[in-house]
Write a structure and sequence with these properties.
The complex is a heterodimer. The longest helix of chain A has 32 residues. By secondary structure, chain A is α/β, with parallel strands linked by helices. By secondary structure, chain B is α+β, with helices and mostly antiparallel strands. Chain B contains 13 helices and eight strands. In chain B, the strands form two sheets. In chain B, strands 3, 4, 5, 6 and 7 form a five-stranded antiparallel β-sheet that branches. Chain B has a two-stranded parallel ribbon with strand order 1-2. In chain B, helix 11 crosses helix 12. The chains are: A alpha/beta, B alpha+beta. Chains A and B meet through helix 4, strand 1, helix 5 and strand 2 of A and helix 2, helix 8, helix 9 and strand 8 of B. Strand 2 of chain A pairs parallel with strand 8 of chain B, so a sheet runs across the interface.
Amino acid sequence: MIDFNQYISNYEKCVSKYIPPKQTWTPVDEAIFKPRDLYRIPLKEAKEMQFKSIKYAFNHHYEKNEFYNNFCKEHKVTPKDIKSIDDFNKIPLIPDKFFKDYPKGKDFATWIANIYTGELPEIVIKNNKPTYDEVIDAFNKAGICITFSSGTGGKHTFIPRDQRTFYTSEYAAAKSLLTMIYPLWEYDAFGYLLMPNPKKTNVYAGKALEIYFDAVKDISVAIDREVNTELIRLTMGGKGIKGKIIQLLAKRTSVKMIDDIIKWLELREKNNDKFTMVGAPYILYAVMKKLKREGRSFNFGEKAGIGTGGGWKVHEHNRIPFDDFQKEVEEVLGIPGKYCLDVYAMVEGNGWMVHCPEGHYLHMPYSYYQPFVLDEEFNQLGYDESGRFAFLDAAAGSYPGFIVTGDQVKLLEHCPVCDRPGPVLDPEVKRVKGEEIRGCAEEVRRMLSSDIGN
Amino acid sequence: MASFKEIKERGYLPQKNLRRLLIFGTLILIKMLITNLSLIRKLSQIPSTGKQYIRPPRRYDLPKFDKDMRYCDANEKYLRPTLYCNSHAPEIIALAHELGAYKKSDREFAKAAFEFAKRKITLEMMSLDGVEYTIRRGAGTCLHEITVFVALCRAAGIKARYKLYSLTMIQAWEDTMIVDPMVKKFQDAMGYFMIHGEGEVFLDGKWVVCDVGPTPERQAATKTPISRFGEDSIGVWLNAVPGTIMFTESLPYGLNVMMRFVQKIAPMTIDKVNKNILDEINRGKEILKEKGEENYDKEIRKSFKPKFPEPVLKMKKSIIFEK
């Protein structure tokens, strides 16, 4: 078996463009790029990194972001007040809803410019009344990646990331997952992305996986067409002839997509290839359902791995429990449970919480990310209590990543099953009562039309 | 019937932002109606047990009107009567005098009008009507409450206007408002609540904001500070959707159409919201009874931190719009 250090070195060789030059490393970079295994850093060392990186990030946003600076002033907090990790609870948290309250047209561009931390490059928008997609494209051309999720209720969340923040997030995503599936990953393998093509979308869960193309030699993509806010609007219930045509096409391509994935699996079996599949569980669930209907199965064993993320709804009123999904993966694809892992993340953050193979608890990247569980008054709760998930994310360099989410979680001090030292989340993550359903997978599910699993 | 000139001058026509909001809201509502017919049918039926909400008694006695009472009859912007805000109505003139019009300084009177509108009018979801009806009833929406404040100030010769915007609220307030799947769907689709506002009074050359919407009991029930004269609610218990804040002399046409429509198709939804508001008021009363209003406010201000950052919409030189 390959040595873990060698394993990570191999990964870093593949993704070297994502790692900033060492001489430019900030405390945030030290906390993300230096540790070989983000989940096994000794607690004392990790806490030092965490303090330095989050304090650095807080100072950065306090100094360079006007709206966040005002918010801090209202909270009467300055960077000087953050003297130790115990002071982290003083850092003002932004409700995730804030990133959903934006105006249209020209004002949308101004809104993005104002939530962005730091100096913007020149952004040219070729329309006086631009659509969301036109604004996003203009920012992207200037090197600011505006990703979005998850408009299940009709409103997207938009987050601006500069290239450094985006690369860091992608690097952390891939490193987190391949650490947990050690020693499965290798470059000379195959991959299937169960999400829109990152090169043709700004949906975060798709876009953030662009690194998959650099980390694995041969990647196929489930949704290989341009996916923008307008297409999402049309596929998720757009009216009129245009909407109907798009929905019909989406449905037809979705059925074809399932057949393509099965053909791809057949080829992997025939050639005895090593592979991974990453993305929306809903698509793989539809594949397995079709295989079962046809009385077929595979036995890929330890040559394959599955990484899922983005939500567990398989139909409008049907949420599949992860255990059942994992069982299906074992039965239909013959892939062991330790290589079937779920990832919990969100467009507002750059922390990737990944299942450990031993117990399937969601592990935190605690060297640059501080999780909190809050009550309804946003007061901090202790370990083992359920409440609203919030986090301080040092990796967010281009917007303040100090955020309260609409997810209900339970935070544990250590994993009850494995020996990784950091905090974990109970695998069961729900939405807080009254919060709209969200998740990139859910968005993709609605886009594809919910019939493909039937 | 107002002339077109008057309609235009006094701002009865919705501003561009509000027009957009109204059109968007109406489209969403129509879509919801078409796609949720059975749910709408269910919500429109009043159960055999009848409605749950019973309007509480008015919190004040109506003062007597005397035709010799002085009032401001200037036809000047922010001083004259506007839609739903007849500052020449006898009820308003009498109340203004009871609150000290033409005896107190402008600031002192504005404070008295603020305290009255904030503390004495019970929040109740309903369609818009004239301010004199609100005074007689002692209940109305936030827009009714602001209108009471604005009309009182204008009757006393002090300029006053509306500050309107779309909003998202803290969870505790949303829990009171989101009572059934229809409201939830509407809010999810819009991403925010349609419209809310505050009053503004012109004192010493400056507009002073007055958050008359929530009574102290409701603020106690939702663990927020009791807003004082001159304190904004934006950033405290609500967040204004960027780009939607508008200042206007009058409530515009169009707002009432949607409210009437909702009242017609979903009376039970309105009933549930109003019942929830009353429950909230009662919970708050208990808290204030136990702690005392001053102590409660002092205590909550020590620990309370704004929940929402205030978004900034400053033009940046680095963004260039090509025509």
